[in-house]
Write a structure and sequence with these properties.
Helix content of chain A: 10-25%
Shape of chain B: globular
Strand content of chain A: 25-35%
CATH architecture of chain B: 3-Layer(aba) Sandwich
Radius of gyration of chain B: 13 Å
CATH topology of chain B: Cytidine Deaminase, domain 2
Largest sheet of chain A: 5 strands, mixed
CATH topology of chain A: Ubiquitin-like (UB roll)
Structural class of chain A: alpha+beta
Strand order of the largest sheet of chain B: 3-2-5-6-7-8
Number of domains of chain B: 1
Distance between the termini of chain A: 51 Å
Strand order of the largest sheet of chain A: 2-1-9-6-7
Number of helices of chain A: 2
Shape of chain A: globular
Structural class of chain B: alpha/beta
Number of strands of chain A: 10
CATH class of chain A: Alpha Beta
CATH class of chain B: Alpha Beta
Helix content of chain B: 10-25%
CATH superfamily of chain B: Cytidine Deaminase, domain 2
Largest interface: A-B, 19 and 37 residues
Number of strands of chain B: 9
Radius of gyration of chain A: 14 Å
Oligomer: heterodimer
Chain lengths: 95, 133
């Protein structure tokens, strides 16, 4: 039993091409640290200073963690965690 | 992938969507297989802005799931530039996380819309070929 973690394509280089990896139950932040221990570098891409980066969305099952307990959201065995980098941009030129 | 093939019908649907959104930018995902697009997903612009876009995260999450369930790949990300050229802005480059995707930009600054397709990797922009048939 484990937590199922969906890895987005931009981060699959860090997971040897795997779209899905397993993680330990606990909190979202502990899960990110656990992933980083096994796939070095992934933690820094997802979070900074203990917070999930602004342009990264994380879902536990169908819920955005920003509407749950953010980084402290609990994850348990059989939960599905999706890491989804935002898609953004626009025509504004840098000042 | 440095070329993208879009059926005319899907291209026209994307263009109509971009025009409907004026003055704001609109955005979405083009999905398919290989380099051939077979599905257009319109995604709400959470910024509701004429100069930026941020895909509504819940919409984006749903689309990702739908692509997975239908065996489709996210081949391109499109957005409109209602008031600037069909070339990636600094913001487009800074926020281009999906390096495997082609970034399609529709400029509506002129009467005749202009489309551009680009790969944005490590802060570098290169042009991609766009075929509409």
């Amino acid at each position: 039993m484990a937590v199922k973690v969906r890895i987005p394509t931009p981060l699959q280089r860090l997971t040897q091409g795997k779209e899905e990896v397993e993680g330990k139950a606990g909190t979202v932040m502990a899960l990110i640290q656990d992933l980083d221990a096994r796939y070095p570098g992934i933690g820094e891409r997802i979070s900074e200073g203990g917070k999930v980066r602004r342009f990264v969305n994380i879902y536990v099952n169908e819920e955005d963690i920003r509407f749950l307990q953010a980084e402290q959201t609990a994850v348990k065995d059989d939960d599905e965690v999706s890491i989804v980098p935002a898609i953004a941009g626009g025509g504004k030129r840098r000042e | 992938m440095n070329e993208l093939s879009i059926p005319k019908q899907i291209f026209n649907e994307m263009l109509a969507y971009c025009r409907e959104g004026v003055p704001d930018e609109v955005c979405g995902i083009l999905a398919g297989d290989g380099n051939r697009i077979s599905k257009l997903y319109k995604i709400a612009n959470a910024d509701s802005s004429p100069v930026s876009y941020l895909m509504d995260s819940r919409d984006q999450f749903r689309v990702m799931k739908d692509m997975r369930e239908n065996g489709l790949s996210m081949l391109a990300i499109f957005h409109s530039h209602p008031a600037s050229t069909a070339y990636p802005s600094n913001r487009d480059v800074d926020l281009a996380f999906y390096e495997d995707c082609v970034y399609v930009i529709m400029s509506l600054i002129q009467e005749e819309p202009v489309s551009g397709a680009f790969l944005i990797r490590g802060g570098h922009i290169s042009e991609a070929a766009l075929t509409i048939d």
